[in-house]
Amino acid sequence: MTSRNAAATRQRILEQARRQFARHGFAACTVKGVADAAGVSPNLITRYFGGKDGLFLAATQVEIPVADSFDGDRSALGARLAASIVRRWSGAPGEDPLLVLQRASGERPEAAEALAAFLDTNSLEPLHRYLRDSGLDDAQARDRAAAIDAFVLGVSTRRRVLRSEPGDPAALEAWLSATIQRLADG
């Protein structure tokens, strides 16, 4: 197998793992099920990832491109964040590693810890810094960032983890935008 084929195979396994973990959770997902869906031998998953735990860790590497949301005036923060959130939520179902982590956090303490640490580092703290840099004092910035973070996580849990339909993307974006903006403005 050439390295190019190995990279493509590894990527195919990760895509299938994200889908399986997102749909079925960690406990119900099996290495054989992921291997079958990816069209590979279960031994290949062990070789590439060391087993189910390693596969889970690789499948849940998350990135949130928040930097664009923090470019601009605070008066339009809600619109920028809402657009970014709805784009992420409207992607292919089951392929978002953040969704995989959210769903697994109820059954795997390490997933809950990873999700909390990730959100603190990549969402809460950058939002806190942005709000502080936009003219709020540190305590106000921290409180408002925490309120936005809790709101978005709550909506995400309700609509994505509990598998409620997110609804019309445009209406969802408008509602998120207005609510996030109210939270940012205090």
Feature tags:
about 190 residues, Arc Repressor Mutant, subunit A, 2 domains, about 75% helix, mainly alpha
Care to give the gist of this entry?
With 186 residues, the protein is mainly alpha-helical. Helix content is 74%, strand content 0%. Helix 1 crosses helix 2 (31-38) and helix 1 packs parallel to helix 6.
| Class inferred from helices and paired strands | mainly alpha
- N→C terminal distance: 57 Å
* Largest sheet report: none
List segments where confidence is low: pLDDT < 50 over at least 5 consecutive residues: none
Q: If helices are DSSP runs of H or I spanning 4 or more residues, what is the number of helices?
A: 9
Order of helices and strands: HHHHHHHHH
Structure description:
There is one protein chain. The chain is an all-alpha fold and 186 residues long. Helix content is 74%, strand content 0%. It contains nine helices and no strands. Helix 1 packs across helix 4, helix 1 runs parallel beside helix 6 and helix 6 (97-104) crosses helix 7. It is elongated and about 55 Å long. The mean pLDDT is 85. It comes from Amycolatopsis australiensis. Residues 30-49 bind DNA. One of its GO terms (molecular function) is transcription cis-regulatory region binding. This is DNA-binding transcriptional regulator, AcrR family.
Secondary structure: elements and pairs:
Layout: H1 3-28, H2 31-38, H3 42-49, H4 52-59, H5 77-89, H6 97-104, H7 109-133, H8 138-161, H9 169-185
Helix pairs in contact: 1-2, 1-4, 1-6, 2-3, 3-4, 5-9, 6-7, 7-8, 8-9
